[in-house]
Amino acid sequence: xxxxxxxxxxxxLALAACRKDDKSVFDQPADARINQALSQYQQVxxxxxxxxxxxITTGTGSIFNFHFKFNDxxxxxxxxxxxxxxASTPRxxxxxxxxxxxxxxxxxxxxxxxxxxxxxxxxxxxxxxxxLQSDFEFAIDTVTADSIHLTGRFNKTAVTLxxxxxxxxxxxxxxxxxxxxxxxxxxxxxxxxKRLSWGSNAYDIxxxxxxxxxxxxxxxxGGNLQRVTAAFYYTSQGLFxxxxxxxxxxxxxxxxxxxxxxxxxxxxxxxxxxxxxxxxGAAKPAQVDLDAPRRWWDYAAQQQNGYWISVNGFHxxxxxxxxxxxxxxxxxxxxxxxxxxxxxxxxxDLLGYVTVQGNSLxxxxxxxxxxxxxxxxxxxxxxxxxxxxxxxxxxxGAFANTNTQMTEARGFYLVQTSATTYDMVSAKDxxxxxxxxx
Length: 438
Prior knowledge:
Blueprint: H1 2-20, H2 30-46, E1 52-57, E2 63-70, E3 75-80, H3 84-88, E4 91-99, E5 103-107, H4 112-117, H5 121-124, E6 137-143, E7 147-152, E8 158-163, H6 166-173, H7 176-180, E9 193-198, E10 201-208, E11 213-219, E12 225-231, E13 233-235, E14 238-247, E15 250-261, E16 266-271, E17 275-282, H8 292-301, E18 308-310, E19 315-316, E20 331-343, E21 346-357, E22 360-369, E23 373-374, E24 380-381, E25 384-389, H9 396-406, E26 412-418, E27 421-426, E28 432-437
Protein backbone atom coordinates (compact mmCIF):
# COMPACT_ATOMS: atom_id res chain seq x y z
CA UNK A 1 0.00 0.00 0.00
CA UNK A 2 2.86 2.29 0.87
CA UNK A 3 4.38 1.76 -2.60
CA UNK A 4 1.06 2.63 -4.31
CA UNK A 5 0.82 5.92 -2.40
CA UNK A 6 4.41 6.74 -3.28
CA UNK A 7 3.79 6.13 -7.01
CA UNK A 8 0.65 8.28 -6.98
CA UNK A 9 2.52 11.11 -5.29
CA UNK A 10 5.29 10.96 -7.90
CA UNK A 11 2.71 10.97 -10.71
CA UNK A 12 0.90 14.00 -9.27
CA LEU A 13 4.19 15.88 -8.99
CA ALA A 14 5.00 15.06 -12.60
CA LEU A 15 1.60 16.28 -13.82
CA ALA A 16 1.95 19.45 -11.83
CA ALA A 17 5.34 20.04 -13.38
CA CYS A 18 3.86 19.57 -16.86
CA ARG A 19 1.13 22.10 -16.14
CA LYS A 20 3.58 24.61 -14.81
CA ASP A 21 5.85 24.34 -17.91
CA ASP A 22 3.07 23.79 -20.54
CA LYS A 23 4.10 25.42 -23.83
CA SER A 24 2.92 24.83 -27.47
CA VAL A 25 5.40 23.15 -29.80
CA PHE A 26 4.12 25.49 -32.59
CA ASP A 27 4.97 29.14 -32.89
CA GLN A 28 1.52 30.00 -34.34
CA PRO A 29 -2.08 28.89 -33.83
CA ALA A 30 -3.46 26.20 -36.16
CA ASP A 31 -5.52 28.66 -38.25
CA ALA A 32 -2.53 30.86 -38.83
CA ARG A 33 -0.38 27.92 -39.89
CA ILE A 34 -3.04 26.69 -42.34
CA ASN A 35 -3.45 30.14 -43.86
CA GLN A 36 0.29 30.44 -44.24
CA ALA A 37 0.45 27.05 -46.02
CA LEU A 38 -2.37 28.01 -48.36
CA SER A 39 -0.63 31.27 -49.15
CA GLN A 40 2.58 29.42 -49.93
CA TYR A 41 0.72 26.98 -52.20
CA GLN A 42 -0.82 29.86 -54.11
CA GLN A 43 2.59 31.42 -54.58
CA VAL A 44 3.85 28.15 -56.06
CA UNK A 45 0.82 27.84 -58.37
CA UNK A 46 1.16 31.37 -59.72
CA UNK A 47 4.94 31.40 -59.92
CA UNK A 48 5.05 29.07 -62.94
CA UNK A 49 5.50 31.49 -65.88
CA UNK A 50 4.40 28.89 -68.46
CA UNK A 51 1.73 27.19 -66.34
CA UNK A 52 1.45 23.53 -65.43
CA UNK A 53 1.10 20.29 -67.40
CA UNK A 54 -1.05 17.46 -65.99
CA UNK A 55 -2.02 13.96 -67.08
CA ILE A 56 -5.24 12.70 -65.48
CA THR A 57 -6.38 9.08 -65.31
CA THR A 58 -10.11 8.90 -64.60
CA GLY A 59 -11.86 6.21 -62.59
CA THR A 60 -12.84 4.52 -65.86
CA GLY A 61 -9.20 4.31 -66.94
CA SER A 62 -9.33 7.07 -69.57
CA ILE A 63 -6.24 9.28 -69.77
CA PHE A 64 -6.40 13.01 -70.56
CA ASN A 65 -3.84 15.81 -70.72
CA PHE A 66 -4.42 19.28 -69.28
CA HIS A 67 -2.60 22.60 -69.16
CA PHE A 68 -3.33 25.05 -66.33
CA LYS A 69 -2.14 28.61 -65.80
CA PHE A 70 -3.08 30.17 -62.45
CA ASN A 71 -2.97 33.82 -61.46
CA ASP A 72 -3.08 35.50 -58.05
CA UNK A 73 -6.66 36.71 -58.63
CA UNK A 74 -7.92 33.13 -58.25
CA UNK A 75 -8.43 32.68 -61.97
CA UNK A 76 -7.11 29.76 -64.02
CA UNK A 77 -6.87 29.29 -67.79
CA UNK A 78 -7.24 25.69 -68.95
CA UNK A 79 -6.61 23.64 -72.10
CA UNK A 80 -7.40 19.91 -72.41
CA UNK A 81 -7.17 17.21 -75.05
CA UNK A 82 -10.81 16.16 -74.64
CA UNK A 83 -11.67 17.36 -78.15
CA UNK A 84 -10.50 19.77 -80.81
CA UNK A 85 -12.27 22.69 -79.10
CA UNK A 86 -10.83 22.12 -75.63
CA ALA A 87 -7.37 21.59 -77.14
CA SER A 88 -7.38 24.91 -78.99
CA THR A 89 -9.68 27.21 -77.01
CA PRO A 90 -8.46 28.39 -73.59
CA ARG A 91 -11.19 28.44 -70.97
CA UNK A 92 -10.96 30.73 -67.94
CA UNK A 93 -12.61 29.81 -64.67
CA UNK A 94 -12.08 30.36 -60.96
CA UNK A 95 -10.21 28.34 -58.37
CA UNK A 96 -9.60 28.58 -54.66
CA UNK A 97 -7.40 27.05 -52.04
CA UNK A 98 -9.28 25.98 -48.93
CA UNK A 99 -8.62 24.03 -45.74
CA UNK A 100 -10.99 21.07 -45.61
CA UNK A 101 -9.79 17.84 -43.97
CA UNK A 102 -6.49 18.98 -45.47
CA UNK A 103 -5.45 21.87 -47.73
CA UNK A 104 -7.34 21.53 -51.01
CA UNK A 105 -7.34 22.97 -54.54
CA UNK A 106 -10.90 23.48 -55.78
CA UNK A 107 -11.94 24.39 -59.32
CA UNK A 108 -15.19 26.02 -58.30
CA UNK A 109 -16.71 27.11 -61.62
CA UNK A 110 -17.36 24.87 -64.63
CA UNK A 111 -14.30 24.19 -66.72
CA UNK A 112 -12.81 21.36 -68.79
CA UNK A 113 -12.11 19.33 -65.64
CA UNK A 114 -15.82 19.34 -64.90
CA UNK A 115 -16.53 17.80 -68.32
CA UNK A 116 -14.84 14.57 -67.22
CA UNK A 117 -16.78 14.48 -63.95
CA UNK A 118 -20.12 15.57 -65.43
CA UNK A 119 -22.76 12.96 -64.50
CA UNK A 120 -24.44 13.46 -67.89
CA UNK A 121 -22.97 10.67 -70.01
CA UNK A 122 -23.76 12.66 -73.16
CA UNK A 123 -21.08 15.18 -72.15
CA UNK A 124 -18.16 12.76 -71.80
CA UNK A 125 -19.29 9.36 -73.07
CA UNK A 126 -19.28 7.91 -69.55
CA UNK A 127 -22.06 6.35 -67.53
CA UNK A 128 -25.13 8.39 -66.70
CA UNK A 129 -24.90 9.37 -63.04
CA UNK A 130 -21.12 9.14 -62.75
CA UNK A 131 -19.55 10.34 -66.00
CA LEU A 132 -15.92 9.27 -66.24
CA GLN A 133 -15.55 9.15 -62.43
CA SER A 134 -13.20 12.09 -62.17
CA ASP A 135 -12.80 15.05 -59.79
CA PHE A 136 -12.58 18.83 -59.69
CA GLU A 137 -11.83 19.16 -55.96
CA PHE A 138 -8.41 17.90 -54.90
CA ALA A 139 -6.57 17.39 -51.64
CA ILE A 140 -3.01 18.70 -51.82
CA ASP A 141 -0.57 15.94 -50.92
CA THR A 142 2.89 17.38 -51.61
CA VAL A 143 4.18 20.61 -53.13
CA THR A 144 7.59 21.44 -54.54
CA ALA A 145 8.71 24.28 -56.77
CA ASP A 146 8.33 22.04 -59.85
CA SER A 147 5.49 19.61 -59.05
CA ILE A 148 2.28 19.36 -57.09
CA HIS A 149 0.69 16.01 -56.18
CA LEU A 150 -3.10 15.98 -55.78
CA THR A 151 -5.76 13.40 -54.91
CA GLY A 152 -9.42 13.83 -55.86
CA ARG A 153 -11.67 14.26 -52.84
CA PHE A 154 -14.50 12.08 -54.15
CA ASN A 155 -13.21 9.66 -56.80
CA LYS A 156 -9.58 9.67 -55.63
CA THR A 157 -8.33 10.81 -59.02
CA ALA A 158 -4.53 10.98 -58.80
CA VAL A 159 -3.07 14.07 -60.50
CA THR A 160 0.43 15.48 -60.64
CA LEU A 161 1.03 18.98 -61.95
CA UNK A 162 4.45 19.56 -63.54
CA UNK A 163 5.82 23.01 -64.22
CA UNK A 164 5.51 23.56 -67.98
CA UNK A 165 8.31 24.62 -70.27
CA UNK A 166 7.83 27.43 -72.81
CA UNK A 167 7.65 24.77 -75.54
CA UNK A 168 4.92 22.83 -73.73
CA UNK A 169 2.79 25.93 -73.28
CA UNK A 170 3.33 26.91 -76.92
CA UNK A 171 2.14 23.48 -78.09
CA UNK A 172 -1.32 24.32 -76.73
CA UNK A 173 -1.29 27.88 -78.01
CA UNK A 174 0.05 27.28 -81.53
CA UNK A 175 -2.30 24.41 -82.43
CA UNK A 176 0.07 21.44 -82.07
CA UNK A 177 -2.28 19.74 -79.62
CA UNK A 178 -5.22 20.63 -81.83
CA UNK A 179 -3.57 18.87 -84.78
CA UNK A 180 -2.90 15.81 -82.63
CA UNK A 181 -6.64 15.38 -82.29
CA UNK A 182 -7.05 14.84 -86.04
CA UNK A 183 -8.05 11.32 -84.97
CA UNK A 184 -11.42 12.77 -84.02
CA UNK A 185 -12.04 13.38 -87.72
CA UNK A 186 -12.45 9.63 -88.11
CA UNK A 187 -16.07 10.23 -87.14
CA UNK A 188 -16.40 12.03 -90.49
CA UNK A 189 -15.60 8.83 -92.39
CA UNK A 190 -19.02 7.77 -93.63
CA UNK A 191 -18.31 4.06 -94.01
CA UNK A 192 -18.80 1.80 -91.02
CA UNK A 193 -15.38 0.19 -91.53
CA LYS A 194 -12.34 2.29 -90.72
CA ARG A 195 -9.25 0.63 -92.18
CA LEU A 196 -5.80 1.10 -90.66
CA SER A 197 -3.30 0.13 -93.35
CA TRP A 198 0.48 0.25 -93.60
CA GLY A 199 2.78 -1.94 -95.65
CA SER A 200 1.13 -5.35 -95.94
CA ASN A 201 -0.80 -4.92 -92.67
CA ALA A 202 -4.49 -4.06 -92.37
CA TYR A 203 -6.80 -3.90 -89.38
CA ASP A 204 -10.29 -2.56 -88.90
CA ILE A 205 -10.23 -0.15 -86.00
CA UNK A 206 -12.69 1.71 -83.83
CA UNK A 207 -11.58 4.70 -81.75
CA UNK A 208 -13.62 5.86 -78.76
CA UNK A 209 -12.44 9.41 -78.15
CA UNK A 210 -14.59 9.76 -75.03
CA UNK A 211 -13.19 6.71 -73.28
CA UNK A 212 -9.76 6.99 -74.96
CA UNK A 213 -9.73 3.42 -76.22
CA UNK A 214 -8.84 1.94 -79.61
CA UNK A 215 -10.10 -1.45 -80.79
CA UNK A 216 -8.26 -3.55 -83.38
CA UNK A 217 -10.40 -6.11 -85.24
CA UNK A 218 -9.20 -8.95 -87.47
CA UNK A 219 -9.72 -12.62 -88.24
CA UNK A 220 -6.76 -14.80 -87.35
CA UNK A 221 -5.19 -17.52 -89.51
CA GLY A 222 -7.55 -20.06 -87.93
CA GLY A 223 -10.60 -18.12 -89.06
CA ASN A 224 -11.39 -16.79 -85.58
CA LEU A 225 -12.56 -13.22 -85.06
CA GLN A 226 -10.18 -11.28 -82.82
CA ARG A 227 -10.85 -7.98 -81.06
CA VAL A 228 -8.33 -6.23 -78.84
CA THR A 229 -9.20 -2.99 -77.07
CA ALA A 230 -6.34 -0.89 -75.69
CA ALA A 231 -6.27 2.32 -73.70
CA PHE A 232 -4.44 5.28 -75.20
CA TYR A 233 -3.61 8.84 -74.39
CA TYR A 234 -2.58 11.74 -76.59
CA THR A 235 0.74 13.53 -76.56
CA SER A 236 1.51 16.65 -78.57
CA GLN A 237 2.97 14.25 -81.17
CA GLY A 238 0.12 11.74 -81.46
CA LEU A 239 -1.75 8.79 -80.01
CA PHE A 240 0.27 6.66 -77.57
CA UNK A 241 -0.58 3.16 -76.26
CA UNK A 242 0.97 2.63 -72.80
CA UNK A 243 0.48 -1.11 -73.37
CA UNK A 244 1.42 -1.66 -77.03
CA UNK A 245 -0.87 -3.67 -79.28
CA UNK A 246 0.81 -6.85 -80.48
CA UNK A 247 -0.26 -9.51 -82.98
CA UNK A 248 2.41 -11.92 -84.08
CA UNK A 249 5.20 -9.80 -85.52
CA UNK A 250 3.10 -6.60 -85.41
CA UNK A 251 3.59 -4.14 -82.55
CA UNK A 252 1.93 -0.72 -82.34
CA UNK A 253 2.96 1.65 -79.55
CA UNK A 254 2.03 4.93 -81.23
CA UNK A 255 0.10 6.34 -84.18
CA UNK A 256 0.94 9.83 -85.36
CA UNK A 257 -1.31 11.92 -87.60
CA UNK A 258 0.46 13.57 -90.51
CA UNK A 259 -2.67 15.19 -91.91
CA UNK A 260 -6.39 14.86 -92.53
CA UNK A 261 -7.68 15.09 -96.10
CA UNK A 262 -11.31 16.30 -95.96
CA UNK A 263 -11.85 15.59 -99.65
CA UNK A 264 -11.04 11.88 -99.46
CA UNK A 265 -11.87 11.61 -95.74
CA UNK A 266 -8.51 9.97 -95.18
CA UNK A 267 -6.11 10.37 -92.26
CA UNK A 268 -2.43 9.97 -93.11
CA UNK A 269 -0.47 8.46 -90.24
CA UNK A 270 2.85 7.03 -89.13
CA UNK A 271 3.15 3.85 -87.10
CA UNK A 272 5.63 4.01 -84.21
CA UNK A 273 6.98 7.26 -85.62
CA UNK A 274 8.29 5.58 -88.77
CA UNK A 275 6.26 3.62 -91.35
CA UNK A 276 3.65 5.67 -93.22
CA UNK A 277 0.08 4.50 -93.61
CA UNK A 278 -3.53 5.63 -93.71
CA UNK A 279 -6.84 5.33 -91.92
CA UNK A 280 -9.71 5.44 -94.42
CA GLY A 281 -13.20 4.15 -94.97
CA ALA A 282 -13.74 0.71 -96.46
CA ALA A 283 -16.74 -0.98 -98.07
CA LYS A 284 -16.16 -4.34 -96.40
CA PRO A 285 -14.26 -5.73 -93.42
CA ALA A 286 -10.53 -6.28 -93.73
CA GLN A 287 -11.35 -9.94 -93.10
CA VAL A 288 -14.98 -11.05 -93.16
CA ASP A 289 -16.35 -13.03 -90.22
CA LEU A 290 -17.98 -15.67 -92.43
CA ASP A 291 -20.05 -17.28 -89.68
CA ALA A 292 -21.34 -14.07 -88.08
CA PRO A 293 -24.65 -13.78 -90.02
CA ARG A 294 -25.72 -17.32 -89.22
CA ARG A 295 -24.47 -16.99 -85.62
CA TRP A 296 -26.51 -13.80 -85.19
CA TRP A 297 -29.72 -15.31 -86.62
CA ASP A 298 -29.37 -18.58 -84.71
CA TYR A 299 -28.73 -16.91 -81.36
CA ALA A 300 -32.21 -15.36 -81.20
CA ALA A 301 -33.94 -18.20 -83.04
CA GLN A 302 -32.73 -20.71 -80.47
CA GLN A 303 -34.18 -18.74 -77.55
CA GLN A 304 -37.82 -19.04 -76.58
CA ASN A 305 -39.54 -15.98 -78.09
CA GLY A 306 -36.10 -14.59 -78.86
CA TYR A 307 -35.55 -11.42 -80.86
CA TRP A 308 -33.03 -8.64 -81.46
CA ILE A 309 -33.87 -5.00 -80.76
CA SER A 310 -32.68 -1.67 -82.14
CA VAL A 311 -33.57 1.63 -80.50
CA ASN A 312 -32.32 3.90 -83.30
CA GLY A 313 -32.99 2.18 -86.61
CA PHE A 314 -30.55 2.60 -89.50
CA HIS A 315 -27.60 4.98 -89.55
CA UNK A 316 -27.10 6.09 -93.17
CA UNK A 317 -24.51 8.43 -94.73
CA UNK A 318 -23.48 9.82 -91.38
CA UNK A 319 -27.05 10.37 -90.12
CA UNK A 320 -28.38 8.57 -87.05
CA UNK A 321 -31.96 7.30 -87.35
CA UNK A 322 -31.88 8.25 -91.01
CA UNK A 323 -35.44 7.01 -91.64
CA UNK A 324 -36.94 8.64 -88.52
CA UNK A 325 -38.28 5.53 -86.85
CA UNK A 326 -37.96 7.33 -83.52
CA UNK A 327 -40.52 9.83 -84.81
CA UNK A 328 -43.20 7.14 -85.05
CA UNK A 329 -45.80 8.03 -82.39
CA UNK A 330 -45.05 6.22 -79.11
CA UNK A 331 -42.11 4.37 -80.67
CA UNK A 332 -40.13 2.24 -78.21
CA UNK A 333 -37.91 -0.01 -80.32
CA UNK A 334 -37.61 -2.03 -83.52
CA UNK A 335 -37.16 -5.78 -83.37
CA UNK A 336 -36.01 -8.56 -85.62
CA UNK A 337 -37.68 -11.83 -84.64
CA UNK A 338 -36.32 -14.93 -86.45
CA UNK A 339 -38.88 -17.61 -87.27
CA UNK A 340 -41.70 -15.45 -85.97
CA UNK A 341 -44.55 -17.18 -87.78
CA UNK A 342 -45.63 -19.53 -90.52
CA UNK A 343 -47.87 -18.99 -93.53
CA UNK A 344 -48.35 -20.98 -96.76
CA UNK A 345 -45.75 -23.46 -95.50
CA UNK A 346 -43.18 -20.67 -95.19
CA UNK A 347 -41.63 -19.81 -91.84
CA UNK A 348 -41.01 -16.08 -91.92
CA ASP A 349 -39.08 -13.57 -89.84
CA LEU A 350 -40.48 -10.28 -88.55
CA LEU A 351 -39.04 -6.77 -88.67
CA GLY A 352 -41.48 -5.25 -86.21
CA TYR A 353 -42.15 -1.95 -84.48
CA VAL A 354 -42.93 -1.88 -80.77
CA THR A 355 -44.82 1.10 -79.36
CA VAL A 356 -46.07 2.13 -75.96
CA GLN A 357 -49.83 1.85 -75.63
CA GLY A 358 -51.10 2.95 -72.24
CA ASN A 359 -48.94 1.20 -69.66
CA SER A 360 -47.82 -1.67 -71.87
CA LEU A 361 -45.81 -2.44 -74.99
CA UNK A 362 -47.57 -3.32 -78.21
CA UNK A 363 -46.37 -4.99 -81.42
CA UNK A 364 -49.03 -3.89 -83.91
CA UNK A 365 -47.28 -3.88 -87.29
CA UNK A 366 -44.14 -4.94 -89.11
CA UNK A 367 -42.63 -6.39 -92.27
CA UNK A 368 -42.45 -10.14 -92.75
CA UNK A 369 -39.31 -11.38 -94.52
CA UNK A 370 -38.60 -14.72 -96.10
CA UNK A 371 -36.03 -17.04 -94.52
CA UNK A 372 -32.73 -15.22 -95.11
CA UNK A 373 -30.03 -16.31 -97.51
CA UNK A 374 -26.61 -16.84 -95.96
CA UNK A 375 -23.87 -16.52 -98.58
CA UNK A 376 -20.53 -18.30 -98.64
CA UNK A 377 -18.71 -14.95 -98.50
CA UNK A 378 -20.27 -13.96 -95.15
CA UNK A 379 -23.38 -11.95 -96.04
CA UNK A 380 -27.06 -12.24 -95.13
CA UNK A 381 -29.74 -11.23 -97.66
CA UNK A 382 -33.39 -10.53 -96.86
CA UNK A 383 -36.46 -10.56 -99.12
CA UNK A 384 -39.81 -9.04 -98.28
CA UNK A 385 -42.69 -11.49 -97.74
CA UNK A 386 -45.50 -9.16 -96.71
CA UNK A 387 -46.87 -6.72 -94.17
CA UNK A 388 -48.30 -7.71 -90.82
CA UNK A 389 -50.90 -5.48 -89.21
CA UNK A 390 -51.91 -2.00 -90.26
CA UNK A 391 -49.13 0.53 -90.71
CA UNK A 392 -50.18 3.90 -89.22
CA UNK A 393 -50.03 6.76 -91.74
CA UNK A 394 -47.53 8.56 -89.46
CA UNK A 395 -45.17 5.55 -89.75
CA UNK A 396 -45.57 4.91 -93.49
CA GLY A 397 -42.40 6.75 -94.59
CA ALA A 398 -40.16 5.22 -91.94
CA PHE A 399 -41.63 1.80 -92.60
CA ALA A 400 -41.15 1.93 -96.38
CA ASN A 401 -37.61 3.35 -96.27
CA THR A 402 -36.49 0.86 -93.65
CA ASN A 403 -37.89 -2.02 -95.72
CA THR A 404 -36.04 -0.77 -98.81
CA GLN A 405 -32.77 -0.66 -96.90
CA MET A 406 -33.38 -4.01 -95.22
CA THR A 407 -33.96 -5.78 -98.53
CA GLU A 408 -31.06 -4.19 -100.45
CA ALA A 409 -29.89 -6.85 -102.91
CA ARG A 410 -26.28 -7.10 -101.69
CA GLY A 411 -27.39 -7.77 -98.14
CA PHE A 412 -25.32 -7.22 -95.00
CA TYR A 413 -22.18 -8.19 -93.14
CA LEU A 414 -22.57 -8.87 -89.42
CA VAL A 415 -19.96 -7.56 -86.99
CA GLN A 416 -20.15 -9.01 -83.49
CA THR A 417 -19.30 -6.31 -80.94
CA SER A 418 -20.02 -8.27 -77.74
CA ALA A 419 -21.61 -11.53 -76.65
CA THR A 420 -25.08 -10.08 -77.22
CA THR A 421 -24.62 -7.19 -79.68
CA TYR A 422 -24.05 -7.09 -83.43
CA ASP A 423 -23.78 -4.36 -86.03
CA MET A 424 -25.43 -5.22 -89.36
CA VAL A 425 -23.57 -3.33 -92.11
CA SER A 426 -24.62 -2.80 -95.73
CA ALA A 427 -22.52 -4.99 -98.02
CA LYS A 428 -23.20 -2.58 -100.87
CA ASP A 429 -21.00 0.26 -99.58
CA UNK A 430 -20.89 0.13 -95.73
CA UNK A 431 -22.65 3.51 -95.65
CA UNK A 432 -25.65 2.10 -93.77
CA UNK A 433 -25.81 0.00 -90.63
CA UNK A 434 -28.01 -0.89 -87.70
CA UNK A 435 -27.08 -2.07 -84.22
CA UNK A 436 -28.88 -5.08 -82.78
CA UNK A 437 -28.78 -6.03 -79.12
CA UNK A 438 -30.31 -8.95 -77.32
